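Handout, section 4.2: multi-component inputs.
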Amino acid sequence: MENFSRQDKAIIRALQEDFPLCEEPYKILAERVGISEEEFLRRVRQLIDEKKIRKMGAVLRHREVGFNANALCAWHVPPDKLDEIAQAMSLNAAVSHCYDRTPVPNWNYNLYTMIHAKTRDECEKIIGELSTATGVGDYKILYTKKEWKKTGMKYFCEGLPTN
Amino acid sequence: MTRLSTFDKALLNLLQGDIPICSHPFAEMASRLGTNEETVLSRVRELKAAGFLRRIGTFFDSNRLGYQGTLIALKVEPSELNAVAEAVNRYPGATHNYEREDQYNLWFTLLTPNAEYESNILAEIRSLRGVEDMLRLKANKKYKINVQFKLQ
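Output:
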């Protein structure tokens, strides 16, 4: 594992908190780390170039914006077609996440997609289309019944006190 | 529920993409939306207070920070489900935790700095009362992580 300096970790810890909603947000974050705004911006750009930051922006509450039918769909895909099928499914705008995962005994699903739709009918229609388009007929729809937790990860905080 | 105006939708679509990396990012966004910094900032604050925004901030690639991610499915006796869900929530590395309609009725993702750390947590969870089975689904390639909803 790559080593992160104390300052790298401090920058990451500052960035993972809520983004300040003020005129000069990076200046505030830089002050928390104890470096200049210019240096902070330079390090952020570097983290983006290194692809350690995926995105800086907002995530909406999808139920509030009208997406009420959300499902994890697990697919059993032939291993030699996994890459091709995963890429095809990722192109669908209703698919927010698409990961391949190692199957385990008695559970042979190896591709996982999160599907977001306004209704269950719409959700099932999307899944039916993905199935037809890729020829994968063995799948399981796992509807979200209750969200117990959804939060951003706090990196480099192991061993620090939690609230 | 607050109705989203055309301006709100344009603002949310822009905000879901990349916040500019510059001294005055909201002024930069304002110029793209044809308005001023104060209008953007005040509306973002209002939309956040009204509950439309889950989070505004930085999303890291966990693997590139040295963390590993696993999806865990638990088969939990229904009478114990709430207690198990709350116990899972207490682990900071359990970032997403959902009750789902299946015999495997609780699904959560777990991010940890190494395999030993993960195994220790999972041993604790497996031994909770009511946990009848556990599937441990290690992530390999991430093809898409893109929680963006285009508002029209």
